[in-house]
């Protein structure tokens, strides 16, 4: 602690994000209590180079991370303005300060693992980063569910431009911040400087535009800025949590402008991509973990990438705090604490749900009378795995599938075995599903 600044040393950016995510409220309260409203928190990422040349690298707080965002939502300003460095600080605003305060350096294309889930968005982003304002991807709108990499990707565009086209004024701003700045500008009679400022930008990256929903005046202001930038061949990049057609509360004239460019989505990465993401993350942390643990994590966490990262950081933290190696049993213990719906063993319910999800049908249909081909296949596959992974009798399995006869189960198992002989894509599906169950029954 020096003066009114408390510096916390952490071994990597990962730890910094973890602390912010979990302890920022406690820290803020403590700092406020001890140092008053001027108290300031900084992190020093101390990279261990294996000798005494540790070079602390100071990261100001908050760095515009998700945790920083959450903090703002939860407690607007609790311990003085030092907790929030607004990029909209009119007198001192210039491209350099704005860039530094807004882009996370590690959000690069190199760190953004490519997969089927993001190929189009990634390559469009890359094209835009190389020729901002010139390609037909203007605006570029990237949408997708929570934690799938929207912010990472659009910041990668910003970082790429910042590194290669130094004269470009790149601005990344969350929609929430834009709205707050606009409201402040109205309150302080600063609307003109606000508009002028945004109209000077060469590349405007605006995150989470669903936040504009229902905010008519902000939308109108954004509409003017948008038109001005677009007419002047400036690049606009946006993200939202859903497709434009589902963006309720946004004016039609704004939505129709989004269609001028390219709209593309991010999906949940498939298994192989998740494995690659885990490997890259672990590599950047300088940690190596066994292959079976990587596979286990990739299989078990299929919700979003942020959750996957959360599990990884937990694992690293537990292993380092308790001075134990990362192995499958540690991974399973951690997962049980984190992932709520994890079951102790592979039961019929789990098999049914997994198969229904895999074949994209309703769970009830597995137990219903329907004889539609895709449902029959999913049902037979689920019966086949129930026989393989549970101790239920054929009769009991039949009972769990809408009161069917044991001979139906025998027939299902036979059909699956036959199909595997003749149909390669069916066989691949069975292998993939079996891995899921195996992972679970480890
Ligand atoms: N393809 C990927 N390769 C590497 N890391 C990824 C990838 N996709 C997402 N991530 C990581 O996952 C985390 C969550 O991503 P990000 O914050 O960009 O998600 P988001 O879609 O913006 O989420 P939200 O909807 O909550 O704003 C980040 O740490 C990001 O670096």
TrEMBL record:
It holds the Pfam family Bac_DnaA_C. Residues 136-266 form the AAA+ ATPase domain. It is found in: Cytoplasm. Residues 347-416 form the Chromosomal replication initiator DnaA C-terminal domain. ATP binds at residues 147, 149-151. One of its GO terms (molecular function) is DNA replication origin binding. One of its GO terms (cellular component) is cytoplasm. Plays an essential role in the initiation and regulation of chromosomal replication. ATP-DnaA binds to the origin of replication (oriC) to initiate formation of the DNA replication initiation complex once per cell cycle. Binds the DnaA box (a 9 base pair repeat at the origin) and separates the double-stranded (ds)DNA. Forms a right-handed helical filament on oriC DNA; dsDNA binds to the exterior of the filament while single-stranded (ss)DNA is stabiized in the filament's interior. Domain I is involved in oligomerization and binding regulators, domain II is flexibile and of varying length in different bacteria, domain III forms the AAA+ region, while domain IV binds dsDNA. This is Chromosomal replication initiator protein DnaA. It comes from Lunatimonas lonarensis. The lineage of its organism: Bacteria, Pseudomonadati, Bacteroidota, Cytophagia, Cytophagales.
């Amino acid at each position: 602690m020096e003066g009114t600044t408390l510096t916390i040393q952490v071994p990597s950016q990962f730890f910094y994000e973890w602390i912010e995510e979990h302890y920022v409220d406690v820290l803020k309260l403590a700092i406020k209590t001890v140092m008053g409203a001027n108290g300031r928190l900084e992190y020093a990422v101390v990279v261990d180079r294996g000798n005494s040349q540790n070079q602390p690298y100071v990261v100001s707080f908050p760095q515009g991370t998700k945790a920083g965002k959450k903090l703002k939502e939860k407690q607007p300003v609790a311990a003085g303005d030092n907790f929030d460095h607004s990029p909209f600080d009119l007198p001192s605003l210039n491209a350099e300060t704005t860039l530094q305060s807004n882009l996370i350096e590690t959000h690069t294309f190199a760190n953004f693992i490519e997969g089927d889930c993001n190929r189009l968005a990634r390559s469009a982003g890359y094209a835009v980063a190389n020729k901002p304002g010139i390609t037909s991807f203007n605006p570029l709108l990237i949408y997708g569910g929570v934690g799938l990499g929207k912010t990472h990707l659009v910041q990668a565009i910003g970082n790429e431009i910042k590194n290669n086209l130094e004269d470009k004024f790149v601005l990344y701003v969350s929609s929430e911040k834009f709205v707050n700045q606009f409201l402040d500008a109205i309150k302080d009679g600063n609307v003109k400087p606000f508009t002028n400022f945004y109209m000077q930008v060469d590349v405007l990256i605006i995150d989470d535009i669903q936040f504009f929903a229902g905010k008519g005046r902000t939308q109108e202001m954004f509409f003017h800025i948008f038109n001005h930038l677009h007419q002047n061949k400036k690049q606009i990049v946006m993200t939202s949590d859903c497709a434009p057609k589902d963006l309720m509360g946004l004016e039609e004239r704004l939505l129709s402008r989004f269609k001028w460019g390219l709209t593309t989505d991010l999906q949940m990465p498939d298994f192989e991509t998740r494995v690659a993401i885990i490997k890259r993350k672990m590599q950047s942390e300088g940690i190596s973990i066994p292959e079976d643990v990587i596979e286990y994590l990739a299989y078990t966490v299929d919700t979003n990438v942020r959750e996957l990262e959360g599990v990884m950081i937990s694992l690293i933290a537990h292993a380092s705090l308790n001075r134990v190696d990362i192995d499958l049993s540690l991974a399973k213990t951690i997962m049980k604490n984190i992932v709520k719906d994890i079951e102790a063993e592979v039961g019929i319910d789990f098999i049914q749900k997994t198969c229904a999800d895999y074949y994209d049908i309703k769970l009830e249909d597995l137990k219903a009378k329907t004889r539609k081909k895709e449902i029959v296949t999913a049902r037979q596959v689920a019966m086949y795995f129930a026989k393989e992974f549970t101790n239920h009798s054929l009769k009991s399995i039949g009972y769990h599938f809408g009161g069917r006869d044991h001979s139906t189960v025998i027939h299902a198992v036979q059909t699956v075995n036959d199909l595997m002989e003749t149909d390669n894509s069916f066989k691949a599906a069975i292998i993939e599903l079996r891995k899921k169950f195996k992972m679970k029954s480890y």
